[in-house]
Write a structure and sequence with these properties.
29% helix, alpha/beta, 345 residues, six-stranded mixed sheet, FAD/NAD(P)-binding domain, eight-stranded mixed sheet, binds flavin-adenine dinucleotide
Length: 345
């Protein structure tokens, strides 16, 4: 089976890895450089922020991914020689929060949760250093013989009645037996007339980065939607905003001041840390944060893996598995109809 994947983010490269491991011949077409968009910009927390706030489709996908992550990331590290710094660092939720709902949900899901004077404590929440993960995925794919074509922007989909014939790109035409669109926030735009039913839109998120003494913060902390993520070398990320501003990746002074003030309120010692960087990324926003991992309703050799919104880094391994099971006609691990292509009303 030869497969063309559009998009070199965590979803495109994660899908490529799973398909290549299954024996497919894989080519990734990326407009810029791999891992240059949302997958680089994100925080790398491997859990929904308040998991009890999401529908079952998000819980199922994130929990499957969290089970797959240790082995998945170890394999990527082994093939690439790059450590993506997967760590179980735990998540502390500071007040205010709805404790009753959290306790009930965690008990029902078998998720460990403790409550103390400081807040809620989820000891099993892990994180990954996503820019490293992206480098590792890219290198692992190359070492496995996958072809990665960067600076190749897909500009058109050429189809017959019910099949894609080829993709036109700025690097020339590309054809394959099967096509996967994993173009993040740009997926609907890229699909043009073939994506009319989709509701995938860019949602901007701004992040700040500080350099602190290693150990200043040991766990991820979250309060009122703002989170701080400690990396092993002392770097601390602060995120993030949720902004509906179209395809605008600019950063704003207002967001910087607000994130900084909130972070200082949560961790006063951050005043001693050095401010390093401020950036923005565009998440592939979707209703209820539920991605589409499905075959196109008319074009039988076209598939979509997109719309992972706030949790694409978390959802990548499970989404890739669901896609590969579909493409290889394997049994699916569970009912995946929640990720089907939206129907025309
Ligand atoms: C500030 C911020 C914080 C986040 N924090 C977390 C977190 O802590 N945990 C978590 O799980 N998730 C987090 N996320 C969300 C996560 O980053 C995204 O859900 C995920 O990266 C989406 O991956 P993707 O591969 O679909 O998209 P992208 O990484 O955006 O990749 C899509 C790729 O497609 C390419 N492309 C687009 N159009 C074309 C075209 N026409 N031709 C060829 N290539 C094209 C783009 O150049 C891009 O490289 C965060 C996101 C942001 C912005």
């Amino acid at each position: 089976m030869d497969i063309l994947i559009v998009g070199g983010g965590v979803i495109g490269l994660g899908s490529a890895l799973e398909l290549a491991l299954g024996g497919a011949t894989v080519t990734v077409l990326e407009r810029g450089t791999c891992g240059g968009e949302s997958s680089w910009a994100g925080g790398g927390i491997l859990s929904p922020l308040l998991p009890w706030d999401y529908p079952a489709a998000v819980t199922d996908l994130t929990q499957l991914s969290c089970r797959l992550y240790p082995e998945w990331v170890a394999r990527v590290a082994e093939i690439s020689g790059i450590d993506p710094e997967y760590r179980v660092s735990g998540l502390r939720v500071l007040p205010p929060f709805g404790a009753e709902r959290a306790v009930q949900w965690c008990a029902g899901q078998g998720v460990r949760l403790e409550q103390d004077g400081e807040g809620l404590w989820l000891p099993d929440v892990a994180q990954v250093r996503n820019p490293r993960l992206m480098k590792a995925l890219r290198l692992a794919l190359e070492r496995m013989g996958a072809r990665i074509v960067e600076r190749a922007e897909v500009t058109g989909i050429v189809s017959t009645e019910n099949r894609v014939e080829r993709l036109d790109t700025t690097a020339g035409p590309f054809a394959a037996g099967c096509y996967v669109v994993a173009a993040g926030a740009w997926s609907k735009k890229l699909l043009g007339k073939y994506g009319v039913q989709l509701d995938i839109r860019p949602v901007r998120g701004q992040m700040l980065l500080y350099r602190a003494q290693p150990g200043m913060l040991r766990h991820i902390i979250l309060q009122n939607g703002t989170y701080l993520i400690p990396r092993v070398d002392g770097h601390i990320l602060v995120g993030s905003t949720l902004e509906d501003v179209g395809f605008d990746k600019a950063t704003t002074g207002e967001a910087r001041a607000e994130l900084h003030a909130r972070a200082l309120g949560m961790l006063p010692q951050l005043a001693q840390a050095e401010f390093i960087k401020h950036w923005a990324g565009l998440r592939p926003g979707s209703p209820d944060n539920v991605p589409i991992i499905a075959q196109h309703p008319q074009l039988e050799n076209l598939f979509l893996n997109s719309g992972h919104f706030r949790y694409g880094v978390t959802m990548a391994p499970a989404s890739a598995k669901i896609l590969a099971n579909r493409l290889f006609n394997r049994e699916r691990p569970s009912d995946c109809s929640s990720y089907d292509w939206p129907r025309l009303n």
